[in-house]
Amino acid sequence: MTQTTDSTGIVIMGGSGRMGRMLIDVITASDSAHIIGVTEAPGHPWAGRDLGEALGGAASGVPVTDQALDVVAKAQAVIDFTTPTATLAMSKVTAQTGAVHVVGTTGMTADDIAALDRAAQETTIVRAGNMSLGVNLLTQIVRQVAAALDDDYDIEVVETHHRHKVDAPSGTALMLGEAAAAGRGVDLDTVADRARDGITGARTRGSIGFHALRGGDVVGDHDVIFAADGERITLRHQASDRSVFARGALKAALWGQGKGPGAFDMLDVLGLR
Fold this sequence. Notes:
oxidoreductase, 12 strands, 4-hydroxy-tetrahydrodipicolinate reductase, Dihydrodipicolinate Reductase, domain 2, 2 domains, 7-stranded parallel β-sheet, Rossmann fold, alpha/beta, NADP, NAD, single chain, diaminopimelate biosynthesis
């Protein structure tokens, strides 16, 4: 990594996880950013160690800590693909320090998002269920197609992820469902159908169905199906490399510099809103 005087200092939350390790690789290779530190939960085997040594190599001078405030105070941004509880705790720290908080955490409730919005009154928060350029372009297309087609076209969202994913539907599936609902001018919570089992009766006209598949090492596949009598339209995104999410998150962290307080998403970052 070539570190310049205007390089953005970034803290990675949960560096030992899949996304954390990918973020380490992407940021280390960047000419625009460098890693200030990594945070882990108290008691984690990496806590208190040097990042390079924790990764099995030479010392890097980058600390791994369970004391978030100390390291975030020295950074310009935090990238966070962790859990709702950890994300909300970090939002209090970023609100205090003014660091840009990039949130890729999924499985958040409406109350969790409301808490993030309150923190965004103090700092820049960029939150998205998916950080990839392709998915965010897809959400725009889904919204346009949903707006063009009436309820004669049933909408189904199908997502596939690796066996270790703990939340369903995925954050990306919900993004796509929100886009479809927005295109039709309805509230997703009132039309979503997330569970079908047994004798369910006929499909409710105007509903948006969700289906979650889990298995193997699938990074993320998402289909939005518009099905009518006589034809189907399928819009698809397939991610084969987790680095697309890490690169998007880094782009968001750099974009957020100097923006001031506010709640944003990847459509803002990509200029698609």
